[in-house]
Structure to design on (356 residues):
């Protein structure tokens, strides 16, 4: 079976390598893409959308439909993880508590709990490592700066590399870092499951809603110059603002999806104990 | 584009890719995928595709490695084959 797999991989790899010989050379000015499409973007994107970063203009404006469905694909990934992994069954439960003043660990079987109001006991994971003050403190200092950087990446996507996807992933990573450095229950208490699912759909809705708004204003789907009358600016600035709105939508959707996928995988769908 | 740097990065990419699929320890495999993604990120940056490099660094080397580690944590660490 291994030999069959190897033969198939080698054959398809050879075919792919053979097919790449038909491609135009790297940065060839005579290739079809560089002759018609790219010059238009390079020469016109500044005056048509007033966005200095051409990549952002192409990604969110000229090829906006493509990016909308990329966001939808990520959203679908989150939903599939939820459907496959999430379980609501309450099985046989074992819990571990730490008595904070003395550091003694209690192991309780049979679904019993320590009263919620007792401040002296702290719940810990069964597969857990010792209490670490350094990791918790450093992460607590670091997380706000990571989130600030994520917001900068989203907001500054017009001028520098970055945009909704990258900023959203960095923001999601900061919340995942919080879940790793403390524990999953604390993170879920701060950023719950319902909020997570709602933000996922909100992000996709902002993107698709901006497109639908353009139809309502009598222009094509995702033609942001339709926002000019709503925002009281000229159509070119409206396209720039439209790109920002869409990037914010992408950022929200990606951020929530990353946290959603992580919560489902790390806790095996139980939302109780995690990495 | 400096061809020596290019060659070194490409060599590391190929070595990391082969090691990631042949290693028995799945946690090591996840880390090797992270190294692979980071080298791909450097390659994109060398080719001038800064946006793609940024995405590769945040998604490929960052979050997907965490997902792999979480999946290993919930399943087994060693492969069967």
């Amino acid at each position: 079976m291994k030999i069959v797999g190897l033969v198939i991989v080698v054959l398809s790899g050879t075919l792919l390598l053979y097919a790449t010989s038909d491609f135009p050379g790297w940065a060839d000015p005579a290739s079809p893409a560089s002759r018609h499409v790219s010059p238009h973007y390079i020469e016109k994107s500044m005056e048509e959308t007033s966005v200095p970063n051409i990549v952002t203009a192409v990604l969110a404006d000229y090829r906006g439909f493509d990016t909308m469905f990329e966001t939808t694909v990520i959203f679908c990934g989150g939903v599939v993880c939820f459907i496959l992994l999430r379980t609501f069954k309450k099985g046989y439960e074992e819990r571990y508590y730490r008595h904070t003043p003395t550091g003694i660990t209690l192991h309780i079987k049979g679904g019993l709990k320590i009263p919620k109001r007792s401040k002296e006991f702290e719940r810990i994971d069964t597969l857990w490592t010792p209490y670490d003050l350094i990791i918790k403190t450093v992460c607590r200092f670091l997380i706000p700066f990571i989130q600030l950087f994520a917001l900068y990446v989203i907001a500054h996507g017009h001028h520098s590399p970055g945009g909704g996807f990258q900023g959203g992933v960095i923001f999601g990573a900061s919340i995942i870092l919080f879940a790793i450095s403390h524990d999953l229950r604390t993170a879920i208490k701060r950023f719950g499951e319902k909020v997570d699912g709602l933000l996922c759909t909100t992000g996709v809705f902002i993107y698709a809603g901006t497109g639908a708004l353009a139809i309502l204003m009598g222009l094509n789907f995702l033609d942001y110059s339709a926002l000019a009358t709503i925002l009281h600016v000229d159509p070119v600035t409206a396209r720039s603002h439209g790109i920002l709105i869409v990037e914010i939508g992408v950022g929200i959707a990606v951020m929530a999806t990353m946290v959603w996928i992580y919560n489902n995988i790390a806790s095996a769908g139980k939302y109780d104990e995690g990495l | 584009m400096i061809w020596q740097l290019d060659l070194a990065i490409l060599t590391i990419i190929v070595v990391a890719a082969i090691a990631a699929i042949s290693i028995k320890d799945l946690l090591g495999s996840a880390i090797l995928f992270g190294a692979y993604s980071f080298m791909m990120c450097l390659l994109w940056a060398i080719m001038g595709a800064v946006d793609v490099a940024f995405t590769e660094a945040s998604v490929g080397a960052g979050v997907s490695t965490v997902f792999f580690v979480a999946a290993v944590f919930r399943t087994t660490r060693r492969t069967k084959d």
Q: What stands out?
A: Chain B has a mean pLDDT of 90. The CA atoms of residues 16 and 28 of chain B lie 11 Å apart. Chain B has one domain: 3-74. Chain B is about 80% helix and 0% strand.
